[in-house]
Amino acid sequence: MLRVIVVEPEGDYNLGFIARLCKNFKVDELVIVNPIASIENAKPFAAKGIDFLENKTRVVFSYNEALKDLDLTIATSSIADIEKDMLRRSIKPWEIHDFILNVKNAGIIFGRESVGLTREEIMKADLLLHIPANPEYPVLNLSHAIGIVLYEIYNHGKRGTSGPPINGKYVKLIDRYVRTIYELVKPSDESIEMYVAMRRTLVGGIRDNEQARAVVHFLRKLYVTLVYSGEDK
Amino acid sequence: MLRVIVVEPEGDYNLGFIARLCKNFKVDELVIVNPIASIENAKPFAAKGIDFLENKTRVVFSYNEALKDLDLTIATSSIADIEKDMLRRSIKPWEIHDFILNVKNAGIIFGRESVGLTREEIMKADLLLHIPANPEYPVLNLSHAIGIVLYEIYNHGKRGTSGPPINGKYVKLIDRYVRTIYELVKPSDESIEMYVAMRRTLVGGIRDNEQARAVVHFLRKLYVTLVYSGEDK
Fold first, then answer.
1. Is A161 on the interface with B (CB under 8 A)?
2. In this protein, which residues make up the domain named tRNA/rRNA methyltransferase SpoU type (chains A, B) (predicted)?
3. pLDDT tens per residue across span B133-155
4. Is B106 in contact with B72 (CB distance < 8 Å)?
5. ipTM
């Protein structure tokens, strides 16, 4: 299941275009967090995607609620790959398909037209996605960014370069272990970057389930050792 | 040089979005044929692409003028690959880059929001491009289609699947020979499909310049033989 999540969209036309794109590229559901745009005014822009707006779109009033029941969450940003900012390490649109292939419920999260997603919102997602564009002006309009991402997911297989999958349960396990281990080892509350970097590296670097199993196994061993050595002292 | 050509665009917002996308993905120029939309009203939608609209955009009043000085022209349509319609045989967005790589001046042509390009307009282009989407509703909004195509061209190399190039002069030569040969052999004026099919097959099937040279050589031989056998009779 593929869910598109849009946080506080501002433009009626964008909301309509997004619903149309969801239908064009067979998305399963659209979840809108605190819309500023009007769904009613968006309808003309949805064209024949109007039924998607009426039947497959939900409005929710919290970010966490929008992410509920998802095994893998991918935030998006036009700001990415900044030196020393682990939160901004990104995957590219042509890599998404590999990450969501064996995931039961995947969600891709898009931010506000004006300011995108907050760091806190990006932090809650498993991965960050960035669309490479002109360094002088890489900021795409919201619905155009969504169009590119959905096009990539819909057409990926046809390119004949489908990569190996990673199961959603491993993504969850890796996050849980990394977070727990981080809490056990963190030098201070200011060192959250350590956790973010490790999570990004692991979820982004694994190419198949066998590799994922091995990583989880290692993390579990690490965790058990840490907890027991703590008890011994 | 990459030129985007938009024929009779109707929506101000689309025109603005298109200029923004041209800047996002480093297009060289935008040529608008007989705009119905207002460039002035489009400006707010161009955001920081407004300078592209002001400095790198031209309005022309004929389709042929928009295609002037181009070595390779690619028309676009949401209607493609219909049985027995050679004009509708299409290439996909991820294949464009290979076709334009060694072409000096390439143009990609997009039609009206309401009815797209006419058959006559498609006929004048070397290739037809189609974005695969949901068969139940494959019709993308104009500016979103442009966004996907420009994204593909801009990012193609990064995927690491760059294919072999074909030089623009061969594209022109192939068209000239095929057209001339067609004129020499056509059974009737109703058989134009023959020419279209041959042109599409040759321009679309060639993968490198060596192959192109061989095809042109064959066509030239064919032409000379046809002309001389006509004189002998």
1. yes
2. 2-151
3. 999 999 999 999 999 999 999 99
4. yes
5. 0.77
